């Protein structure tokens, strides 16, 4: 059985870098840049006013104040401004170009307007309220680096540097194959012993959150022949195959045997973690395979810990592995040493409140958690008030 860190590194190292494609700017959120995005021109492209007020030249403020300057001309956003006449002020608005020879803007709240004259009590500082050409980015500077997973604010920056299209990594195609005779679709008519399939929809949502395209394959029952046939169909046309259930050692756990029959090669299939010890990883040709345990919390946690970093690495994401934080335990946390433990919890400020129910089959405790607390494999536990590492679920 592999330790957590070793398994994660082997999965990341096995990730192929997918090809790139161009997309419209508005479709770039959540996609990963496949090239450095360069500023083709300075940003801003010209000096402009950061305030509504009056553009002036400091040379007009001679002698003792206060000063009264005639207002000559106006500068508005979207139009060129006439040069500032010596000894005068120019009415100016936010975003408007700075008139030639002006070197400061006085905001209108600090100006007394009387007819066609503007009064100033103090002289302005050089460059006051002026956004300078190239202040954000010089021509040729990197606006956004290759490997950046784009958020809405970065889409705004891409637009600001005049890009209508972006070169991004292709979205991985992920087929999700859930196994188990007991499963039925949520909302369908129940039968004795049946349960709604919570893994399929949850995993599809996690796949989409990682920037990939999920496809839910038809669920299969617990026969080797049916499992083999479903695997052969599911392996066609996907970058990653997720199997759910059937990778443990029970009599009805048939996925490992079926994977062998279709020619898949497994790298490993057991981990020193809890929950989620039975987790398989391998490949079939160019398709990677991740075999998850069937219990809902185990399946969803193990995919969050391993599958989402894998998908991000396939897209060239510079930071495929989520960052860790530190919190203080609200109450003691115990475990049997030997496996790295991931425990559902809620964060309140710098305090972590561990969920009472840590059962691997409980989707409810995971739904109400916002963090996974991490206990090292050699730890028997921690006391209330002790510091503990955590991964925020929103950052998985």
Could you describe the 3D structure shown?
With 396 residues, the protein is α/β, with parallel strands linked by helices. The protein folds into four domains: 4-18 and 170-314, Molybdenum Cofactor Biosythetic Enzyme, Chain A (3-Layer(aba) Sandwich), CATH 3.40.980; 20-43 and 135-169, Alpha-Beta Complex (Molybdopterin biosynthesis moea protein, domain 2); 48-131, Beta Complex (Molybdopterin biosynthesis moeA protein, domain 3); 325-395, MoeA, C-terminal, domain IV (Beta-clip, Beta Barrel), CATH 2.40.340. The chain has seven helices and 28 strands. It has helices at 4-13, 152-160, 199-209, 224-234, 255-261, 296-314, 363-367; strands at residues 20-24, 37-38, 48-49, 53-56, 67-75, 89-92, 104-107, 111-114, 117-120, 130-131, 142-144, 165-169, 173-178, 183-184, 195-196, 213-216, 240-244, 265-268, 273-274, 280-284, 287-292, 325-329, 333-334, 340-348, 351-354, 371-375, 381-382, 387-392. The chain has a six-stranded mixed beta sheet, with no helix packed on it. The chain has a six-stranded mixed beta sheet with strand order 16-13-17-21-20-18, sandwiched between helices.
Main sheet record: 6 strands, mixed
| Spans of at least 5 consecutive residues with low confidence | none
Overall 3D shape: elongated
Q: What gyration radius follows from the Cα positions, in whole Å?
A: 30 Å
CATH topology heading of the largest domain: Molybdenum Cofactor Biosythetic Enzyme, Chain A
Task: Give me the side-by-side strand order of the main sheet.
Answer: 7-4-6-5-9-8
Q: What is the percent of helical residues? A: 10-25%
Distance between the termini: 24 Å
Beta fraction of the residues? 25-35%
> What is the CATH class name of the largest domain?
Alpha Beta
Number of domains: 4
Q: Please state the second-level CATH architecture of the largest domain.
A: 3-Layer(aba) Sandwich
Given the helix and strand composition, which structural class is it?
A: alpha/beta
Tell me the number of helical segments per DSSP (H or I, 4 or more residues long).
Answer: 7
The averaged pLDDT comes out at 95
CATH homologous superfamily placement of the largest domain: MoaB/Mog-like domain
Using DSSP, what is the number of strands?
Answer: 28
Determine the oligomeric state from the structure. Answer: single chain
């Amino acid at each position: 059985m592999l330790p957590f860190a070793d398994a994660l590194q082997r999965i990341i190292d096995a990730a192929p870098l997918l090809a790139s494609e161009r997309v419209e700017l508005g479709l770039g959120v959540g996609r990963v840049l496949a090239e450095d995005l360069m500023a083709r021109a300075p940003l801003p492209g010209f000096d402009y006013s950061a305030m509504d007020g009056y553009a002036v030249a400091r040379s007009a403020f001679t002698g003792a104040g206060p000063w009264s300057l005639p207002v000559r001309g106006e500068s508005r956003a979207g139009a060129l401004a006439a040069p500032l006449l010596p000894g005068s002020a120019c009415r100016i608005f936010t975003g408007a170009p700075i008139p030639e020879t002006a070197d400061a803007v006085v905001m209108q709240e600090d100006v007394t307007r009387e007819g066609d004259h503007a009064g100033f009590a103090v002289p302005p500082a050089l460059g006051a309220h002026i956004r300078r050409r190239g202040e954000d980015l010089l021509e040729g500077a990197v606006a956004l680096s290759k490997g950046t997973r784009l958020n809405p604010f970065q889409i705004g920056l891409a637009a600001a540097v005049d890009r209508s299209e972006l070169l991004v990594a292709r979205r991985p195609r992920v087929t999700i194959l859930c196994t188990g005779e007991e499963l039925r679709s949520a909302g369908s008519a129940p039968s004795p012993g049946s349960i709604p399939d919570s893994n399929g929809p949850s995993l599809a949502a996690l796949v989409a959150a990682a920037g990939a395209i999920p496809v839910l394959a038809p669920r299969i029952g617990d026969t080797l022949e049916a499992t083999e046939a479903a695997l052969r169909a599911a392996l066609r046309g996907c970058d990653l195959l997720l199997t759910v259930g059937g990778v443990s050692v029970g009599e009805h756990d048939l996925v490992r045997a079926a994977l062998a029959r279709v020619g898949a090669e497994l790298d490993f299939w057991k981990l020193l973690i809890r929950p989620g010890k039975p987790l398989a990883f391998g490949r079939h040709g160019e398709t990677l395979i991740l075999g998850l345990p069937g219990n809902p919390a185990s399946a969803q946690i193990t995919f969050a810990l391993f599958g989402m970093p894998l998908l991000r690495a396939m897209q060239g994401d510079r930071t495929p592995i989520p960052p860790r934080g530190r919190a203080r335990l609200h109450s003691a946390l115990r475990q049997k040493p030997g496996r790295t433990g991931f425990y559902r919890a809620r964060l309140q400020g710098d305090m972590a409140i561990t969920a009472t129910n840590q059962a691997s089959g409980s989707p409810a405790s995971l739904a109400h958690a916002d963090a996974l607390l991490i206990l090292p494999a050699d730890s028997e536990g921690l006391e209330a008030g002790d510091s503990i590492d955590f991964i925020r679920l929103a950052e998985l």
